[in-house]
Give the backbone structure.
Amino acid sequence: MCNVWEAVVSGMGWVVRDGCLVDFWYDEWLASLGPLAPFYKRSGRPASCPVISFVSDGYWDVQRLDEVLPEVCIQQIIAVYPPSPLLGHDRLGWRNDKRSIFTVKSAYNSLVSNQPMEGANVWKMIWRLPVPQRIRAFIWLAFRGSLLTNKERTRRHMADDPGCSLCGHVCEDELHVLRDCVISRGLWRQVVDGNVYHNFYTTPLHDWLYMNLVGNGIVARIMDNWNIFFAILCWKIWQRRNRMIFDPDVVENEDMLRACLCYMNEVVGARTTLSAMVGPPSVVRRGEGSDWKCPPATWVKLNVDGAVNTTTKAAAIGGVCRTDGGDWLFGFNRRLGCCSVLNAELWAVLEGLRHAWRCGFHRVEIESDSREAVDCVVAGSRVRTANALVIVIEEYLKRDWEVAVKCVGRESNAVADWFAKKARDNELGEWFYETPPMEVQLLLENDQHQR
Ligand SMILES: [Zn+2]
């Protein structure tokens, strides 16, 4: 255990509850982003402060967040349940498990996939980049600082001047070549979003590569597949630079950005074609409980669902409440920001309970098609590191009413799914439907026929 302790520690992350202990800027409390300091919009380093200081009257202070962080970060933050003293103290959790529970299995899995020690999960992240192997290898070398820059060549006694041969800068290292040298800088300037400009140019090498390559890329939103584009452009910058230096007779007139875009589309297109060829799974599970059923007499039934865009992580939730005769009571939906599928499903349960409680129902059967979310709700706060949503849901369940939580098949959750997807086109915030929208009538009738 001693040998791997460091890796175990690097797998720890914060579970924010009251937001008093965790540092907003320097602790890692948003697994998808890492510490927020590199995203600080203003110049200099932000002063330490607890997460709770960005909450006002129980809600995230979006205006204040907007002053210091780019939109991409804010989208992730507002999908986190705002810290509150009612939730208990902040805790350490285990990041390699979705429910933050430490298990030997998840620790082992994270260790074996992590062999090179340079920062948690970097190797895995690079290895998973959907780009040709030679570009992955190039990115890996850049990450390790092993590209043959003049700095490295001097270190290996292959050259005696570490300076940049194109612009004369004193030290030609990875960051200089890929980002800061005149030509590279001019290229990035054309594609990097103005909001993240400052971070983009001030972040150290490892963070810089990480924030552009992880997931869809944090600097993303400029375009889909930013991480792929970023990797390709880095690689092309390096290649062209070598040609210019070692073969000065070659005239470079290729439009780099256009070439990168074409290459990216080729890479993405190749993947799309592949999955189109494989096609959707041919077996559709239609087991028991695939049809919507009325709740027992005197109960109401609440179907809830979360929808997360796999590329942007933009999340939305929705739900519908019906009587024991299958008649309409209300519908709701809400666009959340960006979060994991599990968190979206938990948000859906919470919002459903909130509306049902507000409407004064005493017996509520709540159905979700997420096995994982239902398991989390049932396990509740017995799981020491359960996330804040689970704690708040549990608080609702303890109130003076009867609530049954069930997992059902997707088919019987179609109406809730419709509301969740519908919310993705809405503004941020929540919507309540006292009468059913026209477009959902057919789905409602379908459920009525099956009950
Ligand atoms: Zn230079």
